[in-house]
Amino acid sequence: MGQKITIEPVTRVEGHGKVTIHIDNDGNIEQTRLHIVEFRGFERFVQGRPYWEAPVVVQRLCGICPVSHHLAAAKAMDVIVGAGTGDGLTPTGEKMRRLMHYGQVFQSHSLHFFHLASPDLLFGVDGDPLTRNIIGVAMKNKDLAVQGVMMRKFGQEVIRATAGKKIHGTGAIPGGINKHLSEEDRDLLLNGDDPVNINKMIEWSRGALEFFHDYHKKNKDIIDRFVDFPSSHLSLVRKDGALDLYHGVLRAVNSEGKKILHDVDYQDYNKYIDEEVRSWSYMKFPYLKEYGMSSGWYTVGPLARMNTADFIDTPLAQKEFERFRSYTEGRINNMPMHMHWARLIEILHSAEKMKELLQDPDLLKGELVKKGNKQRTGVGLLEAPRGTLFHHYKINEFDQIVMANLIVSTTNNNQPMNLAVNQVARALMTGKKEISEGMMNAVEVAIRAYDPCLSCATHAMGQMPLEIALYDSNDKLIDTKRSI
Amino acid sequence: MCLKPSILVYGYGNPGRQDDGLGIRLAGMIEKWSVQSGYSHIVTDTNYQLNIEDAELISIYDIVIFADASIDPEGDIELTTVTPDPKTEFTMHAVSPGFVVDLCHAIYNRHPDAYLLHMKGFQWGFMETMTKEALENLDKGFNFMKAFLEQKSGKPDKGRPVKSVVL
């Protein structure tokens, strides 16, 4: 009798995902699917609103990375007000936004590493879910837990200082920024009492990398071989090939390192990228048009960025980048668990960039806004913590938004996440009659490496356990299991 | 001599999702009321959702009252005691009040007395306007909280918020 296994996180309003695994009569994996119920109505919600509201309104999409949506929308509106793209702003405007963005990446990546990844590393994939969390980390390694909390807090303080508020700030406006950095905030972030200062953040970022390297040395099985499949990678890079999380040109490389998207202007993204709809998922599957869906899909996020960039323009992160690249002898790194390593390199890079910016006098003075000839359409892209984020808007003669298209990072990672689930299922569930805790955790760990954004637009109420439901070939429920 | 406890009222939720903004709205009302009443030991804060850094935030208070919208509280409003709870979720998008309290204890070896005020909500669409029924529950929550905070506070005083106030 064939079976269908469903792994489903339970949520309140929307934004939940589930995994279904179909097993044939012999216990072989027939098919796996990661379904993500992503709320797409936001693109309709902003229609009819004046364009200048978009950078503030779109932040309601997410409580974890509102700054990414805020800045992507603001970048699109820069084009609409005729200020050009990214580097066309005033020095103050661009640098304040960059500081905000690096603060966002720093806090989001720190949260992921200390809250989600480090428990998996400290306690193992099979660890007790009740201790496999940051509280367990605090019991075992209090310094690490404190660092996680304070690094997240530091990033939030940078956001407050640049955007006005920790959540849903108003800093970025069409054509620039609405304030300078205050000297008080600069001094606090640069030289504040321990641990809230940038030098401590850099020190702790390096410490987190050392923690990872130590773990990696002892656990190559899980980091190098847990999941591994060929993938193309896409991200923005600076025009000279440097890692740039705020602005650049679009580049993609295939699994062998060959450039398949050649540093193109992202205003033309829809010439190169399309999205496929599948009947079983609300989330679309983006791909490079030239290669079709079957081979044009790609990965975005920290791992992709390490694969597309030629170098990093901050010294400590560059040193780590060289170590990262030499680990695969210069070849493309297709190991999703190395996403954690890449994320840590970006934490260090963000800390270095923040220090550089905090020492820049342009943040304290200078013109805030630039405008030019109004346009009717604008595209804003940036590298959000989870990967490339696309915002595309059109306005009418009354300045109202008439079209919005968003491709969020998790959507870009739809196909690779599905493949990761499939590989884990084949490795651990083939021939099994029951779903063990470890198997369920393994699926969870594989998905979590991508840091998917499953509950955008609302905070979750109550717990969000993983639930496995086992069905026979007639879709009759024969067993269920919850992860917590 | 008696000590006045430091109190944090922490409203959370998404004000862009109709009744989900109940907690944040309540915190704003408490903020205004506590200033008018001279309750300087009562402070408020708001956020979209709870997360790990809130462990550090709550660590300096004697009493913390989380306030949130709820689908099915016992009655229109309900106050429950928050006990430390290590259960976490599949992603990092939010943690529960119990998780924040537990993490606070794990890191700082102490945690405040914590409560969660649930206010029943009804609609969760993409707009800021709350339903009439939710607004009625907001009033009930506000009146309940005033009485609760007065009971916990004793006489009003003037001055800056501090951890403990000597009367």
Question: What is the percentage of strand-forming residues of chain A?
Answer: 15-25%
Q: What's the tally of helices of chain A?
A: 17
Instruction: Domain count of chain A, please report it.
Output: 2
Rg of chain A, Cα atoms, Å: 22 Å
| Largest interface between protein chains, with number of residues from each side | A-B, 56 and 36 residues
Instruction: Note the gap between the termini of chain A.
Output: 29 Å
Largest sheet of chain A: 5 strands, antiparallel
List the helices and strands and how they pair.
The complex is a heterodimer of chains A (484) and B (167).
Chain A lengths: L2 E7 L7 E7 L5 E8 L5 H4 L8 H4 L8 H15 L10 H33 L10 H7 L1 H22 L8 E2 L2 E2 L5 H9 L6 H21 L1 H6 L6 E6 L11 E5 L5 E6 L4 H4 E4 L8 E4 L3 H5 L1 E2 L2 H7 L6 H13 L11 H20 L18 E8 L2 E9 L5 E7 L1 H4 L1 H16 L7 H12 L17 E7 L4 E6 L2
Parallel strand pairs in A: 6-11
Antiparallel strand pairs in A: 1-2, 1-15, 2-3, 4-5, 6-7, 7-8, 9-10, 12-13, 13-14, 15-16
Chain B lengths: L2 E3 L1 E6 L9 H16 L4 E6 L6 H5 L4 E8 L6 E5 L15 H12 L4 E8 L11 H22 L10 E3 L1
Parallel strand pairs in B: 2-3, 2-4, 4-6
Antiparallel strand pairs in B: 1-7, 5-6
Helix pairs in contact in B: 1-4
